[in-house]
Amino acid sequence: MKARVWIKLVLAVVVISMSGCEKKDATVKGPEAKEIGQMSANTESFGKTPDGKQVDLYTLTNTRGIRARITSFGAILVSLEVPDRDGNLADITLGFDKLDGYTGVHPYFGAIVGRYANRIGKAAFKLDGVEYKLAANDGVNHLHGGTKGFDKAVWRLEDLGVKGAGAVVKLSYISEDGEEGYPGNLACSVTYTLTEDDKLKISYEAETDKKTVVNLTNHSYFNLAGQGTGDILGHELMLNADKYTVVDEGLIPTGENRNVKGTPMDFTTPMTIGSRIGQVEGGYDHNYVLNSGGGTLALAAKAYEPASGRVMEIHTDQPGVQFYTGNFLDGSVTGKAGKVYRKNYGFCLETQHFPDSPNKPGFPSVVLFPGQRYSTVTAYKFSTK
Ligand code: GLA
User: Fold this and answer.
1) How many angstroms does the Cα of residue 152 sit away from the middle of ligand 1?
2) In the prediction, which pLDDT does 37 show?
3) Counting atoms of ligand 1 from 1, which one is nearest the CA of 108?
4) Nearest to 175, CA basis, from 215, 221, 125, 121
């Protein structure tokens, strides 16, 4: 045990000194570098958690001026600035300017959600006949990893710098055996890569020492017109999914995957989010069954905001995506730049395994075995039209 702590300390020193070097060398000019647009990866302090832990903020930029800021608290994507059709940058994600917004109660703005993103029915599941009880933090069900999910953990910096693929920050977190009721020590990492072809790629890796369940996602709320500027009902959306998982009143799948054809759930051809939202009780908060089936990187969704011309395409290797229209935002949260977030001010496309998979043998498996590696990728590609 002592040796393990010592090894961790040495590793931490190596990583810290490496990131120090990277920082100096990180700013390199791309082929068409502008004043604002050098490819870079930098770090600064984001303050301290209420219990005194240091939290950092990392900024990744590419030569077109796209800028992503990520914090070690919850591995949260704090902001994402992308150009409109005239080249003007706007921050397209909801969130907070300061750390205390994120350490307080908030609806998972920008966060990495785990150990199990989305819901687990009756807050329990069984593995090999053993029942694991989790926090019932959404009525009788378990939501987004529990009372203190991965979104509330301070992650460790593993890597920061400009690499072949782009500007990179890699963060890691060890979720201990029994944390929030889940079995097995789970060593996870999340890598954000901002590429020169205007993609923000998020890669997730995890390994366990005991059979467990894993489902990681990013819970960013997008508004392609700019965060806090209004609702997202005028965005056009395409979802590459012919089916969705039908849910009960607690938003737990019944097991039926229903065809979207001829219903307000159909986004197989681009439709504005608001055109039929009134026919969906409470708004959209559903898991779509992606046509790809998961396993290979494929187009899951495409969103377009007509006034700014911004387009976001999402590719993932996950089998599902939760489409959520910020139905629970009610104006009680004041976010970045003093903007008040009202109902439908952002939409989430949480790439994931289906909700309640640990209790649904018919759904793709979320079980991770010792010796296996959980490894998934979701990429958000930005352009304009
Ligand atoms: C997910 C869920 C929603 C809601 C939000 C957070 O998207 O599906 O029901 O819980 O997270 O507010």
Assistant:
1) 16
2) 62
3) 6
4) 215
